[in-house]
Structures are given as structure tokens and as C-alpha cells.
């Protein structure tokens, strides 16, 4: 069935040619920094937002646009009626009170979470030593075979922001994964910046691995970009590529590998069906699954997210069926504590498919 | 008369699964008043999620914990569901999708599967009887999933219910029975392939596939709630949930213990976050993003050559060359080009 796979790939590149642009040039998504503003970072911001809420409410009052209320009639059915101005005002002010209560709660929750994260960061601190990470991991009775992580690019002005920050986060994560003895790592970023900067990424990984393992016994790695069907190895211009035994295989995915790949596969299958090369009854779960595994990769066992609240941002939907998620509330940094706590959490999780 | 008896039974069950054994005079009406006020308040926020998905996990653990039979645990889960849904619809949620039974659940013991089927058979029509959920809030009930796996008796009941409620337009309840997300995607793919019939292939895109999903014509999923503290989707709405901005809420309590109060708290949280999350991208951030992309373009100029070569190689593939190029040497070759 690799013929089908190749056709799907060609389908994809044809679509790119047709639009006259590379698939990477997506409409830029709302930058993540704006999303992170949801969690109030300071007292003043929090206060401001509460007062904003009052303001917003006043604005809505003047609009008075949605002053209808669903009313349960005497026969038990429902009907809508306009609610009076004072009733509306009553509910609105109640809402403001609730928002203030929630805001205060949220403020303390945020402080608590950030304190917790700070303590964890002190407690779990590997300082570039694979042995310590190894020690942490050997305590666990179950380690995921395949690990995935969603990375986000931060605004250039921030600490660890921009593309360089993203590459740095990725290479840190790779070092931890190698040290933990996990053989497959999938790195996902929405815009595919890791894929675009793969050369620089290789150098970054190299530098980081030297830091962890020393220049003499560097672990071998392979970077796979399933969408472009390419594989890269450690050294830039190495000739002895026969030796393909690698310690870790890294797959770089982007939004392109998600729903769009399923669309491409559908197109290919539709074409084959139109030419009577494939019957509709032949399209089974197993076929689609094996095709998508070839095109994108395997389903990870554990998915780490280093943002404040889980947002899957277009991660390949087919591949998150039974994946365990882990993230720390109100965290926004790629830190070792999140990594190891994710692994610990996974070791404690019980898996029962349907049972 | 018959209905009244049923209603009483419903209320009885409601009490037993409710909070403790409070039953002083006026308690029930007070509770419902609080509920009404709360839902109206949430409704005025104009920031209620349009589509909420529920993974109702923990019925069996609840039964084990409180010394019930497994089927009683599922029964308790059903009442919890109707109370939660009532609050949702009263607050202005347009669509709710509940994960009642997974295709994988057929692997469970035969007696439990039978009990679940019996529960579905008994309760599904009750949902739309006079004064019950569907009638009260104008809910269209749909059963989605691979229903061909169900037996004939249950299918009749389902088609009866869906027919009874098909003209309700205010809200929708999707009951996933028996459902898996992968099956949904596969079903949509097949649907698209049969409808296009080899023509207009370029018109197929994400929205085409999405419109052929079981939840195709409904609002996009805004909020997914899973109880019992497990961080997995278990094959529920996998296509819909990866959307940017879909909130995922994991609650560490068993489903029968998840009541309207917790639901109201989640809805409040959702509305709060919606209010204070700027929807527009800040101009500063746009600038940053632009910087980031130009930077990356600089870096990717090296890559542009192999990309061209990959498109030319794809045109070779278009000639339906059966010659198979294994992916790995392919990649290495490109490496050397650089």
C-alpha cells in the first residue's frame, strides 16, 4: 500500500503547487502570547480586568441586545419572552459579583500554582547531567515508548522567545528524552518553524548534547520530517550513513500533518475509487490507520504541553485517540519539572481500552 | 397517570443521587430557584459555550464505592447527566454531545452491555416525554455513531425518539451510542468519497470532511468536560477537539457526583476567560510574528532547493510509476545535495 502513500504525498505537493505557495505559509494563528494573557499575571492586571468586566457589562446594558429569557410555560414546554430592564440589570450585577468572586479565587489559584511550580523547579533540577535524569526515570514502573510535545513560539521580546527560543526548548527536551531512555519523540509546533529551521535545529541539538554527554560519546539521533519525507542524522556532511542505529528518533510535525493530511488521503482515495482501482468497501479502519501511520507517524503514549491550559492547536487528530495528556496549570515554560512530572503521572495512570 | 408515576420515580431517584438526604420543606423549590437564577445569570454573560462535550466517566467506580450494582451506577450517571444538561440548556448552551457508549465498550462483560442497552432502551424516550428535558428546552435528540451495531428493538426506539424531536430547533443533544472518533472520521471520509464519486477532487477540503461528520452542521466544540481525573480523550470527538481554542476541562470527581453546581462553576470560568481573553491579535504581536517568519525564511532558503526537487519527484509519481522509492535513501540523497 505504499503506492497509496506516495500518491497522497504527491497529492499534497500538487495542492501546494496549485495554490502557488508552500503549505507552511498558513494564515498565522493568533499568537500564543495573547492566549496566555488569559491568566492574570499581576495584581494590577487582575484588578483592571475586573473593572473592565463592569465596563463591558455597562456597554452591553446600553446595547440591550439580548434581553430575552427562556421561560418555562405552564404546559412544561419552553418559550421565549423579553425580560424587563430591571430583571436584566439584576442578572447582570449578579454576574459581575460572580466574576469578582471568581477573579479573587483565580488570583489566589494563580499565586498558588506559580509558587508550586517554583518549588518543583528547585526540587527537580538536573543541571545538564543525564545520570540524574536516569535516576529519576528508573524509579518509575512504566515509561512511555513514544513521547510527544507541543511547543509554542513566544514573542521575540520575551525571555526564551522567538525562533531561537523555540529551537532551544526543543533541543533541551531532546536531551531529557535521550537521558530518560525514550526512543521516539514527536515535536509539534503549529507553524512548522522547527521544520523550516531544521539545519539550525541540528546544530542546536548537537551543542546541547555535547553539554550533556561530552563530545566523545555523543548519542546518535535522527530527525524525521514526515511531511517532506526526509531524514537527517547527527553530522552535517557525514558519509558513513550506513550506520543508522540511533538512540532517538525525532519527528517534527506541524499543523500540515493534522487534518490536512487526512484531507489529502481522502482525495487520493477518492481518485483511486473514481478510477475503479479501489473499492469503497476496501476502505477500512486498518487501511486508513496504516496509511496515516506511514504519513505522519505512530500515536504517542504521552503528550506534554508546556502552556497554561491544554490547547491541542491542530495536533493530528487521528493520533490522539488514547494518548495521555499532561500539562501544569499556569505554567508557560519548558522546564524539566513538567517533563519528569508528566512521566511520573503517566507511570501512575491506569489504561483500560473500553473496559 | 402513567407519566406521573414515572415522574415521581424520576424525582425519587433525583433525591437519592442528590446531595445527602436533605428534604426539609421548600428545599427542592429553593434549589430550583437558585438554579434558575444561576442559569439566567450565566445566560446574560453572552459568553456561554455553544457546544459542550461530555465524557461521562466513573459510573462503575461510583457504584463500587457506594456498594451498588454496576447497573445502578449507570442509572445514577443518567440522572446526573439530565441534571447537568438541564443547567446547560437553561444557560444557553446550544449543543451538547455526550459519550454514552464507545464501540470498544462491547468488550465489557455481556451482562453489563445488556444492562446498558436496557438503560438506553428505557430512558431514551423518557427524555422527550411531556415536561422532561427535550420538551422543556426544545431539544432535538440525535443518536450518533455506528448505530448499525445496535439491535433492532433499540433502533426502533431511537428512530421513534429522533422523529418525535426532529422539529425542535432551540438546542441539540447528541448521544454517542456506540461511537468512536476514528469511526466518525472514517465514516466522513467514506461519505465524501461516495458523494464526490471521483469528480471535483480539488473541492475537497477540511470543511468538506467536517460537514460530513456526525456533528457536521452544528456549532464547533467549545468545551470538553471529562470527569474522574483521567487525561485522555478515549477516542471522543478527536477531530473536533484539536481546534485551536477548544477548552478541555478535567474534573477529579466521578460522573454521578458531578452535579449542576460544578457545571455552573465551569461555565462561569469559561465566561470569565472569554471576557478577558483578547480575541484580536495585538499589533505588537503581529509585528513579532512577522519578524519570526522573516527570520525563518532566511534560514529556510537552504531548504528551498530540496523542496523543489521533492515537487519534481512528485510529478514523476504522478505518472503512476509503480517504481517505489523507499523513504530513507530518498532523504539521504537530499542530504547530500546540500
Essential attributes:
heterodimer; A: 355 residues; alpha/beta; Undecaprenyl pyrophosphate synthetase; 2 domains; two-stranded antiparallel ribbon; 12% strand; globular; B: 338 residues; 6-stranded parallel sheet; 13 helices; 9% strand; disordered N terminus; disordered C terminus
In CATH, the architecture of the largest domain in chain A is 3-Layer(aba) Sandwich
Total domains of chain A, how many? 2
Rg of chain A (CA only):
25 Å
Describe the main β-sheet of chain B briefly: 6 strands, parallel
Average pLDDT number of chain A: 79
Structural class by SSE content of chain A? alpha/beta
User: Share of helix among residues of chain A?
Assistant: 40-55%
Poorly predicted parts of chain B: 1-21, 280-338
Order of helical and strand elements of chain A: HHHEEHHEHEHHEEEHHEEH
Which two chains touch over the largest interface?
A-B, 111 and 108 residues
CATH superfamily of the largest domain in chain A: Decaprenyl diphosphate synthase-like
- The number of E-state strands of chain B comes to 6
Helix share, percent of chain B: 55-70%
Query: Any low-confidence stretches of chain A, pLDDT <50, length ≥5?
Result: 18-41, 57-67
According to CATH, what is the class of the largest domain in chain A? Alpha Beta
CATH topology of the largest domain in chain A: Undecaprenyl pyrophosphate synthetase
Widest sheet of chain A: strand order?
A: 6-5-7-4-3-8-9
Tell me the β content of chain B. 5-15%
Between the first and last Cα atoms of chain B, what is the distance in angstroms?
83 Å
Amino acid at each position: 500500500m505504499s503506492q497509496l502513500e506516495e500518491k497522497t504525498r504527491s497529492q499534497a505537493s500538487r495542492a501546494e503547487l496549485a495554490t502557488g505557495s508552500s503549505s507552511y505559509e498558513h494564515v498565522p494563528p493568533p499568537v500564543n502570547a495573547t492566549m496566555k494573557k488569559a491568566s492574570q499575571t499581576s495584581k494590577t492586571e487582575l484588578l483592571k480586568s475586573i473593572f473592565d468586566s463592569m465596563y463591558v457589562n455597562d456597554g452591553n446594558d446600553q446595547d440591550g441586545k439580548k434581553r430575552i429569557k427562556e421561560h418555562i410555560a405552564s404546559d412544561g414546554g419552553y418559550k421565549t419572552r423579553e425580560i424587563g430592564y430591571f430583571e436584566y440589570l439584576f442578572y447582570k450585577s449578579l454576574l459581575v459579583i460572580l466574576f469578582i468572586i471568581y477573579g479573587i479565587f483565580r488570583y489566589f489559584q494563580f499565586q498558588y500554582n506559580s509558587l508550586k511550580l517554583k518549588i518543583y523547579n528547585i526540587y527537580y533540577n538536573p543541571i545538564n547531567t543525564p545520570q540524574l535524569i536516569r535516576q529519576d526515570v528508573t524509579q518509575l514502573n512504566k515509561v512511555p515508548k513514544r513521547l510527544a510535545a507541543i511547543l509554542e513560539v513566544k514573542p521575540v521580546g520575551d525571555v526564551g522567545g522567538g525562533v531561537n527560543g523555540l529551537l532551544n526548548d526543543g533541543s533541551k527536551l531532546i536531551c531529557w528524552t535521550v537521558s530518560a531512555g525514550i526512543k521516539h519523540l514527536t515535536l509539534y509546533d503549529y507553524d512548522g518553524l522547527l521544520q523550516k529551521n531544521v539545519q539550525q535545529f541540528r546544530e542546536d541539538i548537537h551543542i546541547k548534547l555535547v553539554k550533556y554527554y561530552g563530545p566523545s560519546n555523543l548519542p546518535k539521533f535522527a530527525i524525521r520530517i514526515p511531511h517532506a519525507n526526509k531524514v537527517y542524522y547527527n553530522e552535517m556532511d557525514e558519509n558513513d550513513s550506513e550506520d543508522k542505529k540511533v538512540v532517538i528518533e525525532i519527528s517534527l510535525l506541524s499543523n500540515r500533518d493534522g487534518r490536512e493530511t487526512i484531507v489529502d488521503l481522502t482525495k487520493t482515495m477518492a481518485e483511486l475509487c473514481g478510477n475503479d482501482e479501489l473499492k469503497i468497501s476496501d476502505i477500512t479502519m486498518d487501511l486508513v490507520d496504516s496509511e496515516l501511520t506511514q504519513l505522519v507517524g505512530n500515536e504517542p503514549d504521552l503528550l506534554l504541553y508546556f502552556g497554561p491550559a491544554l490547547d491541542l492547536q491542530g495536533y493530528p487528530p487521528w493520533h490522539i485517540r488514547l494518548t495521555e495528556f499532561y500539562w501544569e496549570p499556569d505554567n508557560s515554560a519548558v522546564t524539566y519539572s513538567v517533563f519528569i512530572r508528566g512521566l511520573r503521572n503517566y507511570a501512575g495512570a491506569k489504561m483500560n481500552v473500553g473496559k | 397517570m402513567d407519566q406521573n408515576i414515572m415522574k415521581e420515580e424520576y424525582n425519587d431517584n433525583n433525591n437519592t443521587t442528590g446531595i445527602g438526604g436533605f428534604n426539609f420543606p421548600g428545599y427542592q423549590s429553593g434549589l430550583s430557584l437558585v438554579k434558575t437564577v444561576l442559569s439566567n445569570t450565566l445566560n446574560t454573560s453572552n459568553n456561554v459555550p455553544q457546544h459542550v462535550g461530555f465524557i461521562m466517566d466513573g459510573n462503575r467506580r461510583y457504584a463500587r464505592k457506594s456498594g451498588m450494582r454496576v447497573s445502578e451506577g449507570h442509572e445514577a450517571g443518567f440522572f446526573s447527566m439530565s441534571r447537568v444538561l438541564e443547567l446547560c440548556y437553561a444557560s444557553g448552551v446550544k449543543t451538547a454531545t455526550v459519550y454514552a457508549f464507545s464501540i470498544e465498550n462491547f468488550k465489557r462483560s455481556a451482562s453489563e452491555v445488556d444492562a446498558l442497552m436496557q438503560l438506553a432502551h428505557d430512558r431514551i424516550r423518557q427524555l422527550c416525554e411531556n415536561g422532561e428535558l427535550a420538551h422543556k428546552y426544545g431539544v432535538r435528540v440525535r443518536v450518533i455513531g455506528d448505530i448499525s451495531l445496535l439491535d433492532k428493538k433499540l433502533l426502533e426506539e431511537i428512530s421513534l425518539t429522533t422523529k418525535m424531536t426532529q422539529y425542535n430547533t432551540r438546542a441539540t443533544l447528541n448521544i454517542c451510542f456506540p461511537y468512536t472518533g476514528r469511526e466518525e472520521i472514517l465514516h466522513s471520509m467514506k461519505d465524501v468519497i461516495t458523494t464526490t464519486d471521483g469528480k471535483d477532487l480539488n473541492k475537497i477540503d477540511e470543511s468538506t470532511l467536517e460537514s460530513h461528520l456526525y456533528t457536521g452542521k452544528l456549532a464547533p466544540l467549545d468545551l470538553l468536560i471529562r470527569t474522574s481525573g483521567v487525561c485522555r480523550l478515549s477516542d471522543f470527538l478527536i477531530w473536533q477537539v484539536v481546534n485551536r481554542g477548544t477548552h478541555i476541562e478535567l474534573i477529579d470527581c466521578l460522573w454521578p457526583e458531578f452535579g449542576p453546581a460544578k457545571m455552573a462553576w465551569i461555565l462561569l470560568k469559561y465566561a470569565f476567560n472569554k471576557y478577558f481573553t483578547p480575541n484580536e491579535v495585538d499589533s505588537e504581536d503581529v509585528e513579532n510574528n512577522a519578524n519570526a517568519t522573516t527570520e525563518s525564511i532566511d534560514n529556510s532558503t537552504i531548504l528551498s532547493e530540496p523542496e523543489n526537487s521533492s515537487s519534481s519527484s512528485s510529478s514523476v509519481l504522478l505518472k503512476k510509476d509503480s517504481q517505489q522509492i523507499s523513504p530513507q535513501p530518498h532523504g539521504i540523497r537530499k542530504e547530500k545535495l546540500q
